[in-house]
Amino acid sequence: MGSLEEDRLAQMVHDFIESESSSTLFPTSSEFRSINHQAKLFTLQEILGTVTKAEAEVLEKVLKHMRNKMDSEKTTGLKKWLVMRLKMDGFNASICHASCVTSLGCPAGDYDYIEILMKAENGYPLMRLIVDIDFKSQFELARPTQSYKELTDIVPSIFVGGEDKLTKIISVLCSAAKQSLRERGLHVPPWRTSAYMQSKWLSGCTKVTTNTSSISYNRETMEVKNVGNGFGMWSPPIVKPKRRGLGGGSGLSSQFSSMGINCC
């Protein structure tokens, strides 16, 4: 559990013991599960209820554009359309493609979401906001307990937030998902762990695709590396004029040798 959830749970257990008679020193297992659930619920509400000015600004625009498309299939095409709209609003928006490799029993998979880079409110040069228009469905479980359903009911379908906020949400929901699966007598698959869920949005190396280029960057340092023509308009490669009388190959081969080809 995250520190907020742990503090909330400790306080609620303390309040419960204080409110009971002296003969009841500790809550029963069912009472403890109830207290634990309430701590998770309050913690999640607190996380979701804390909205920065930047998050509110982006969410307002996203909801405006998605108003007539909420029932549409959340395909990459729809995300690209939304990115185009957000760019028209003046945001530095891109499609992020995260690839999860097979490891420790986790299946390989790909996931697309939207990223917006903007000036941070705390003085840092860049702030990364994650926009996911299919956020809630990522936490759905088969045969969820009522407690888990109460948690996912307050999770928004469209998420806009920073990495720290997303990490806290994942921590609370993955902990609750594990409890729900165990109460149903089901195995907890490795792709329901916090580490795997975080890799969908917070992987260390993410490929960002724009209309004109492809870049890769290190999420920890925000170091950006061009993998295509860069951020400007596409332009053909510079072809050096054929040198006459030097030999050593045809004009076509010399043109190809002067073209730089980058692969990611």
Description:
By secondary structure, the chain is an alpha+beta fold. The longest helix has 21 residues. α1 packs across α2 and α5 packs antiparallel against α6. Strands 4-3-2-1-5-6-7 form a seven-stranded antiparallel β-sheet, with helices on both faces. The C terminus is likely disordered.
What are the SSEs and their pairings?
Elements: H1 3-19, H2 29-49, H3 53-66, H4 76-88, E1 92-100, E2 109-118, E3 127-132, H5 146-153, E4 159-161, H6 163-183, H7 194-202, E5 205-209, E6 214-218, E7 223-226, H8 251-257
Antiparallel strand pairs: 1-2, 1-5, 2-3, 3-4, 5-6, 6-7
Helix pairs in contact: 1-2, 2-5, 2-6, 5-6, 6-7
InterPro entries: PDDEXK-like
Pfam families: PDDEXK_6 (PF04720)
List keywords for this structure.
single chain; 264 residues; alpha+beta; seven-stranded antiparallel sheet; 8 helices; 7 strands; globular; disordered C terminus
In short:
Pfam families: PDDEXK_6. InterPro entries: PDDEXK-like (IPR006502). The protein is of the alpha+beta class and 264 residues long.
How much of the residues is beta strand, in percent? 15-25%
The number of helical elements comes to: 8
- Structural shape: globular
Q: Compute the average pLDDT.
A: 76
Report strand order across the widest sheet: 4-3-2-1-5-6-7
Evaluate the radius of gyration. Answer: 25 Å
Kindly state the percentage of residues in helix: 40-55%
Q: Which class of secondary structure composition applies to the elements?
A: alpha+beta
Q: Low-confidence spans: pLDDT under 50, at least 5 residues? A: 226-242, 244-264
H and E string = HHHHEEEHEHHEEEH
User: How far apart are the termini?
Assistant: 37 Å
Largest sheet entry: 7 strands, antiparallel
- Tell how many strands the DSSP assignment holds: 7
